[in-house]
Amino acid sequence: MSLQHAQDEQAVDPRRWWALAVIAIAQLMIVLDATIVNIALPSAQKDLGISDGNRQWVITAYTLAFGGLLLLGGRIGDLFGRKRTFLIGLLGFALASAIGGFATEPWMLFGARALQGAFGALLAPSALSLLSTTFTDAKERATAFGVFGALAGGGAAIGLIMGGLLTEYLNWRWCLFVNIPIAIGAALAAYALLKRDHVAKGHRVRLDLPGAFLGCGGLLLIVFGTSEAVSRGWVDWLVLTSLCVGVALLFVFVLFERRTDHPLLPLHIVSDRNRGGGAIAVGLAVIGMFGLFLFLTYYMQVVKGFSPVMAGVSFLPMTAAIVISATGIAANLMTRVPSRALVVPGLLLGAGGMAWLTQMKVDSPYATMVLPAELLLGFGMGLVFMPSLSLATLGVAPNETGAASAIINSAQQVGGSIGVALLNTIAASATATWLATRNAADPLVLKQGQVHGYAIATTVAMGILLVAAVIAFLMIDHKPAPGEAGSTAAEPAQATARPAAEPR
Fold it and tell me: Which keywords, in A-to-Z order, does the entry hold (predicted)?
């Protein structure tokens, strides 16, 4: 490779901010699609005749495919080029959304949601990898990851808002159709703006198929087990079997990856204390945050009588707080203070928001009970997501950023599944215990029991965020260095990776 070509590769891309817009739109679509269908689910169930026992598959099919295939999706991007997998992921997501929108039978909708999750597993790691390799200047990287972190944290709330609007004023099918123009537009822009990084056939390493089976199979079973726990309970034989076999597969996966020449997940990526601490912090934070979305959605609509649209709009302050915190505060401080000084206070702020909600009552006003808690959690999550996502790929060799990106995405996905299942089970159990000694036929008493369950589960969520703060304090020790590059790796790693790239 000529010196001039090497210099060209290292030159700053003048279209990088446009590329950020494309990557951010794709990330937003992925995150909001995890929740946008939630509010539309009752309408879709009635329209397609989905039974109560099967309705959860509209949600579970997406999370299963997405969470189970993330490791494979991330590595495919490393082996065949992030731009290529990003484009395939976008177009495939659009196709899957069209199938789901036109569904006439339950199985069509279930299959479309699984297909969305599969293409999302290609798309999400590629998006984070492209962001990492596009922005290498420390200050620019901080701004870019601030935007990305804001969308990662606030996208789920935006999904609830959009789901309410589309369902109430159009049709539940538009919760799927809306992805089509977004995905196609983003794909066209990505084709024009993103640098080509296709890996030549002669330089591709062999895909670790046994590792893919073990790693993806383990994640899939864990996500399935936690999802099924919502309806079956944690002591159900299928739930316990899925969780135990999933953990066993991941254990064997680690042993296998230590011995293979071309690992699906190079273990040195996971063993880095900053990357590991960031992933754990995000995973635990998402457990609390998704639990909050679940409780507040029911609290607003069932207890307070809000319409779906108003329930969605009630999350706007938290979304705004995440955006301000990630882009305005964390992005400016990330190059000046240690990452721990952002992540730990962020988790403590989130725990404070949960503590506030433990005092909720049936007649608690939104402005004095829910709003302050949303703002505390929003400002806290912005401080957590932004530096954690940056740490996910910091210092990783260019040919391994997909695998590193898959780690943080897996933490988010598994954390979300566990959060919904665990906290929902705790809330339901607390409500049942409280109502057992009272007149459950009284509507007011019933609402009081539901709010009691939410408060108990929120207390557990607060504890989880406090534990996350302790782990982040002990594990994350990254300090910004002057002129720190975003995804720089050791020279040997770069030398290995560079010949694999082709000029656009």
Answer: Antibiotic resistance, Cell membrane, Membrane, Transmembrane, Transmembrane helix, Transport
